[in-house]
Amino acid sequence: MCNASCGYCPHTVYRRQWRGENLSLETFRCLAPAFSKSRLIYLQGWGEPFLNPELFAMIHMAKNAGCRVGTTTNGMLLDAGTLNRLVDLEVDLVAFSLAGTDEKNDLQRRGTRIETVLEAMRNLNQIKRNKGKSKPEVHIAYMLLRSGLDDLAKLPLVLQGLGVTQVVISTLDFVPSKDLAAEAFMVSDGRDYPELESRLDKVAELGRNHGLNIHYQLQSPGRRRQVCTENVARALVVAADGEVSPCVFTNLPVTGVTLVADGVERPYRRLTFGNVRDRSLSSLWGQIAYRNFRRSFYEERPPSVCQSCAKR
Q: How far apart are CA 275 and CA 184, in angstroms?
């Protein structure tokens, strides 16, 4: 579920076909046997985590098992009580989603207000100081759209003094409709790459001057990564319905929709390897089909759903 309607998000574009639900505590408990082998449990889906009434119970479970815990939020529901609970539970990191440095963010991320989000960061930083706590770390998940390229340089100044330790800049790697193709950076043919790389390097340097670690992933034209940035060889995603998949892009709860990849409109097909409600996570991870999927990257024959993905 989500209280926003970001124009570039599959949840918004596919809203008529979307089968929305919250991850239940019962389904989350099915993952508990795997907690001891997990470095990080990240409570995020294609929606707003703080709309899930079971979120803090899940945080309790994961922290009690000794796991690092993080989440990504649009920042609109973080009142003082919620922020205090995040600090008291020592949640390891909270990332705030942005797609602009001023009111343009609000146009792209309808239902949110950048001033409200920035104020939540200020309040969280103040609560941490008052309590002498270093957690949660505050990160920014920044969506860089082509229409917002000229605003990118303002980002370090906007975030100055808010306690942000890391910024991850992403581009529109999953294009859910032809109307959004113009917002993506198609670096495969080399047209956008030099300017985009230059601007990203400059904002990363500016960030360092303001005490910010700004990161981005940009693949050189004509090259493919062996394994994508979603770390599918060591990480996985469990959807709200319990289905297990390699990454968030292969686990959308939709049918009968299309996406744009390599400039071509294609049918979207969900790729999953079973359900944690039926089998243990370790058995799903170890099954032959899933092992073959992971091995395929190292043998340079990834499945078709991954061959055209911008993450590679």
A: 33
Pairing of strands 93-98, 137-144: parallel
The dihedral sign for the CA sequence 161, 164, 166, 171:
negative
| Angstrom distance (rounded) from CA 287 to CA 112 | 42
28 membership: H or E segment, kind and range? helix 25-29
Q: Which two tokens stand for residue 200?
A: 């990203």
Three-state DSSP class for 214?
strand
DSSP codes, 270-303: -----BTTTS-HHHHHHSHHHHHHHHHHHTT---
Query: What tokens does 280 get?
Result: 């243990």
Residue 152 tokens, joined: 């990118």
Each residue's pLDDT, cut to its tens digit, for the chain (312 residues) gives 899 999 999 999 999 999 989 999 999 999 999 999 998 999 998 999 999 999 999 999 999 999 999 999 999 999 999 999 999 999 999 999 999 999 999 999 999 999 999 999 999 999 999 999 999 999 999 999 999 999 999 999 999 999 999 999 999 989 999 999 999 987 655 667 788 889 999 999 999 998 899 999 876 666 666 678 888 989 999 999 999 999 999 999 999 999 998 888 999 999 999 999 999 999 999 999 999 999 998 887 888 888 878 777
Cβ(267)–Cβ(258) under 8 Å?
yes
Reference 177, options 249, 265, 307; nearest CA is 265
Q: Where are the alpha helices (DSSP H) in 136-280?
A: 155-159, 193-209
Dihedral angle of Cα 32, 60, 94, 122, to the nearest 10 degrees: 180
Question: Environment class of residue 66 by beta-carbon count within 10 Å: exposed (0-12), middle (13-18) or buried (19+)?
Answer: exposed
Rounded to 10°, the helix 80-88/114-131 angle is: 50
* 228: phi then psi, degrees, rounded to nearest 5: -75, 170
